[in-house]
């Protein structure tokens, strides 16, 4: 189905809903493609491909709201589907806060192309995907007698979507992604350490395709001899790819739903210094080729570049239309786009060199954070740092504390940004972290 055909069908579905009892409606039609290959023991363990078309419709009927989706695209089927959905919506409870956004908040078109779709997506031959997976596995096989198992995989995906609303919005998006992974387990005296490495990209030509297995093997071997060390309060460096685990609770606390439901430790904190002045964070939806780049959100609200934390001062929440009405706040988009950290001048190795005694965290094993209080407890694994050097692997230890205290105690922010995510996290050094071990 072409983009024009999707627009035509979406508008038909929207008008059909309005003609049959809905006061407002929003319709999106998307097509998606994905494939994956997994290699294990020099054989194809899994080979998958999926193609899907979906129509989603949000209905506002007599002060009541519902959302529905179907893969049926014929008008006669859709007519029955929409009529039944409208009738079902009438049995729901009223919710006066459920409406479409105000038209003036919509994206009006004319934005700079964000380059989030590989135009050659369908030109990557299946055999090339398989060969790439085998090549990654081959980087590991036979390289060390302690290897127990190796798996390697390739994956990709594409989604194209159009969206229309009954109060004037029209817009379309297109995104693609490609990725490769390797997982390796090795044997030691009393354990089976394993590790993983992956790379991803929007464009196949920009995907890093070699060295993946080698990195996964090295990280697994480096874990041999993991043990607990004595409990204590020490500096903690969190590797860039792992920062999201402890940064997620901060972002979750900024959502309109968390604020309205009193499940946030950042309620009434706009304009206040809540974390270290060393952290400045910008949400930038307009990075060309960015993982989270978009001109409008899932409701059609125009995106804007905005500062989230300015030298530790909280500047904004993430508010969609529904919670904006409940909180009497102007909607500004309910989710993150590209999160850009103001970085320092050292990579993770430079941060390590400045630590007399501390722990480099390379993985989190379970744990949780309380959304209301910010109190957390996480299992960690990584390496002991002594006199600026890594000396031995550690595991089966926990960190405990409070999110606001943790992020107020930033010692230094690295410059090694993780480019594999829309959360462009660098490695970060935290001071005075409580570790429990022996």
CATH architecture type of the largest domain: 2-Layer Sandwich
Would you count the extended β strands for me? 17
The named CATH superfamily of the largest domain: PmbA/TldD superfamily
Radius of gyration: 25 Å
Poorly predicted runs are none
- The secondary-structure class comes to alpha+beta
What is the CATH topology descriptor of the largest domain?
PmbA/TldD fold
Largest sheet: 6 strands, antiparallel
Shape descriptor reads globular
Total domains, how many?
2
Helical stretch tally: 9
Order of helices and strands: HEEEHHEEEHEHHEEEHEHEEEHEEE
Written overview of the protein:
There is one protein chain. The protein is α+β, with helices and mostly antiparallel strands. The protein has two domains: 3-222, PmbA/TldD fold; 226-438, no CATH class. The chain contains nine helices and 17 strands. Strands 3-2-1-4-5-6 form a six-stranded antiparallel β-sheet. Helix 1 crosses helix 2 (75-89). It starts with a helix and ends with a strand. The model has no long low-confidence stretch (mean pLDDT 96).
Defining key terms:
438 residues, alpha+beta, 2 domains, 6-stranded antiparallel sheet, 5-stranded mixed barrel, 9 helices, globular
């Amino acid at each position: 189905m072409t983009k024009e055909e999707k627009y035509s069908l979406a508008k038909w579905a929207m008008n059909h809903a309005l003609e049959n009892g809905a006061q407002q409606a929003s319709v999106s039609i998307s097509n998606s493609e994905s494939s994956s290959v997994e290699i294990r023991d020099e054989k194809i363990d899994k080979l998958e491909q999926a193609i899907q078309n979906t129509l989603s419709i949000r209905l506002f009927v007599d002060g009541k709201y519902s959302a529905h989706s179907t893969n049926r695209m014929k008008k006669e089927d859709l007519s029955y589907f929409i009529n039944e959905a409208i009738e079902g919506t009438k049995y729901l409870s009223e919710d006066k806060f459920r409406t479409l956004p105000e038209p003036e908040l919509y994206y009006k078109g004319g934005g700079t192309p964000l380059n989030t779709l590989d135009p050659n997506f369908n030109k990557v031959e299946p055999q090339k995907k398989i060969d790439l997976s085998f090549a990654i596995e081959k980087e590991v096989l036979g390289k060390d007698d302690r290897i127990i198992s190796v798996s390697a995989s390739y994956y990709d995906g594409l989604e194209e979507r159009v969206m229309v609303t009954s109060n004037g919005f029209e817009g379309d998006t297109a995104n693609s992604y490609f990725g490769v992974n390797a997982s390796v387990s090795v044997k030691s005296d009393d354990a089976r350490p394993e590790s993983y490495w992956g790379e991803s990209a929007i464009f196949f030509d920009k995907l890093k395709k070699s060295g993946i297995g080698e990195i996964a093997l090295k990280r697994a071997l480096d874990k041999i001899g993991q043990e607990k060390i004595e409990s204590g309060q020490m500096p903690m460096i969190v590797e860039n790819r792992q920062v999201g685990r402890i940064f997620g609770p901060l972002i979750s606390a900024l959502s309109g739903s968390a604020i309205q439901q009193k499940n946030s430790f950042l309620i009434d904190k706009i304009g206040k210094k809540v974390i270290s002045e060393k952290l400045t964070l910008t949400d930038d939806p307009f990075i060309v080729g960015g993982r989270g780049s978009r001109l409008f959100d899932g409701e059609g609200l125009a995106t804007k570049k905005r500062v989230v934390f300015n030298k530790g001062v909280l500047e904004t929440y993430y508010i969609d239309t529904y919670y904006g009405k409940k909180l009497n706040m102007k909607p500004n988009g309910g989710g993150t786009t590209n999160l850009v950290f103001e970085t320092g001048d050292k990579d993770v190795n430079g941060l390590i060199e400045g630590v007399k005694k501390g722990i480099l965290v390379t993985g989190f094993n379970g744990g949780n954070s309380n959304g209301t209080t910010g109190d957390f407890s996480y299992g960690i694994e990584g390496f002991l740092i002594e006199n600026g050097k890594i000396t031995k692997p550690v595991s089966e230890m926990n960190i405990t504390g409070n999110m606001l205290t943790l992020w107020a105690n930033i010692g230094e922010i690295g410059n090694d940004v993780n480019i594999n995510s829309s959360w462009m996290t660098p490695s970060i050094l935290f001071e005075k972290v409580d570790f429990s071990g022996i």
